[in-house]
Amino acid sequence: MTYEPTAAHLAVELTRRTVGSARPDAPVVPDAAPRGERVAAARLRFAGNLRAVARWVEPTPRRGTCQPS
Questions:
Q1: pTM of structure
Q2: Which of 8, 57, 58, 60 has the largest count of CB atoms under 10 Å?
Q3: Which long-range contacts (CB under 8 A, 24 or more apart) does 1-6 make?
């Protein structure tokens, strides 16, 4: 096996990034602001409409009907 300086440098650099990634002084991304009640209500209505469209596009089979195999 031959010595590859590029591979050695890459191994050291990746090890440093892995070890240093959980430092206590790492920047913290704040949580997103909570959504308002209007947005939550609109999302709920839109989800209901999407479910209704899904039921219309792909209806469930009824009992007693013949299904091709």
A1: 0.37
A2: 8
A3: none
| Rounded CA separation 56/68 (Å) | 20
Report whether 63 contacts 57 (CB < 8 A): no
Q: State yes or no: pLDDT of 49 exceeds 70.
A: yes
C-alpha 8/C-alpha 27 separation (Å) is 29
Q: How many CA atoms lie within 13 A of 15 on its CB side?
A: 6
Give the rounded percent of residues in the chain with a pLDDT score beyond 90: 19
Q: From CA 26, how far away is CA 28, in angstroms rounded? A: 6
Q: Which residues contact 61 (CB under 8 A, 6 or more apart)?
A: 67
